Amino acid sequence: MTGTPLWQTWVFACSVLIIVGASFVFQPDLTTQLLMLVPSVAILGLPHGAFDLPIAKSLWPLNGWRGHARFVLLYIGLAVLLICIWIVFPGPALFAFLIYSGVHFSGDWEDTSGTLRWTGGIATVGAPALFHREEVASIFAYLAPEPTANFAATLLALSGAGALAFSVALIAYQPSLRTRAAVEQGVLWIAAACLAPLVYFIVYFCTLHSVRHFTDAITFIEHKRQATRVAVGLSIVTILASFIGFAIMQKLGADDLKKSVLQIVFIGLAALTVPHMILIDRFQRKLKDRQ
Ligand SMILES: CC1=C(/C=C/C(C)=C/C=C/C(C)=C/C=O)C(C)(C)CCC1
Ligand SMILES: [Fe+2]
Questions:
Q1: Is pLDDT at 145 greater than 80 in this prediction?
Q2: How far apart are CA 7 and CA 272, in angstroms?
Q3: Is 48 annotated as contributing to ligand binding?
Q4: Over 80: is that where the pLDDT of 205 sits?
Q5: Which terminus of the chain has fewer Cβ atoms in its 10 Å neighbourhood, N or C?
Q6: Per UniProt, where does Fe cation bind (predicted)?
Q7: Ligand 1: does its nearest atom lie under 6 Å from the Cβ of 132?
């Protein structure tokens, strides 16, 4: 976005530096990565989704409680529909989710040249697959049949390689592209290379994507206090629910249960992010029209 504050780049770069430093002494296994993922996304990631209702209000007139209820029902209904679609067609659903996520994340570099915007979008999902293809494939295998999961991870790795080569060439030959976006994407690649895929995702999602969305949303929505209270409340409920869920999971120690909890976390996240992505993309278009 035009006038994106520079402190956001610093927050991201410093977070990556600290986490990469910490990863030399502590390399978490998948269960620990999940234990880190849920509260981090709840504390730093979800608030950007919790602003969706006020954002919707700035886009459409949601009159009275009926208007609000209609929006919430549509939002949750769409998420439930997507969970059903995922259960019936897990393979195509995973592909659609990855493509839509890349498009959504490319919005983080909306104020930059078209090409760097797209290399950034592809890098967000392709970079971890390029360096840790096997690990990404095994996470995807919780979400879709194994051959599809493998294929998706390989395709992501190839797209990541393409995006990396293309952006390096672009930045080398076009000095005008040596912008803040180029620095952020460089940091993103370092994070993806050095960190486990989920840890990389936590750092990118929480300290760049979410911070950027959150700052834009808070600038434009009305009733900031009320919206912030809803966002904090939602995060607290999610944190409590996830801790209780994990405590039960650890106690029971059942392998199948662990798998189903993983599926609930990822498919639930995927389903909730689709109505969020549609809304945010509309919101970003509106912001662009205003400028
Ligand atoms: C599961 C998974 C990945 C993809 C996550 C995605 C695609 C998340 C999208 C979230 C969205 C779109 C949030 C919107 O605000 C990675 C990074 C490849 C690493 C391996 C595990
Ligand atoms: Fe988002």
A1: yes
A2: 29
A3: yes
A4: yes
A5: C
A6: 48, 104, 209, 213
A7: no
> According to the annotation, is 132 in a ligand binding site?
no
Residue with tokens 């979400």: 143
| Count of alpha carbons within 13 angstroms of residue 48, beta-carbon side | 22
**3-state SS record for the chain:** CCCCCCHHHHHHHHHHHHHHHHHCCCCCCHHHHHHHHHHHHHHHHCHHHHCHHHHHHHHCCCCHHHHHHHHHHHHHHHHHHHHHHHHHCHHHHHHHHHHHHHHHHHHHHCCCCHHHHHHHHHHHHHHHHHHCHHHHHHHHCCCCCHHHHHHHHHHHHHHHHHHHHHHHHHHHHCHHHCCHHHHHHHHHHHHHHHCCHHHHHHHHHHHHHHHHHHHHHHHHCCCHHHHHHHHHHHHHHHHHHHHHHHHHHHHHCCHHHHHHHHHHHHHHHHHHHHHHHHHHHHHHHHHHHHC
This prediction has a pTM of 0.86
* CB 226, CB 162: distance < 8 Å: no
Tokens standing for 181?
């976006």
CA 229 to chain centre: 22
ipTM of the complex: 0.96
Q: Mind listing the pLDDT tens digit for each residue in 30-53?
A: 778 877 877 787 777 666 667 787
* Atom of ligand 1 minimally distant from the CA of 98: 7
**Alpha-carbon gap, residue 228 to 282, rounded angstroms:** 21
User: What's the pLDDT score for residue 255?
Assistant: 61
At 242, the pLDDT band (50, 70, 90 cuts) reads low
Report which of residues 126 and 227 the model is more confident about. Answer: 126
Count of positions (residues) in the chain: 291
| Ligand 1 atom at minimal distance to the Cα of residue 136 | 20
Please say if the pLDDT value at position 65 is more than 70: yes
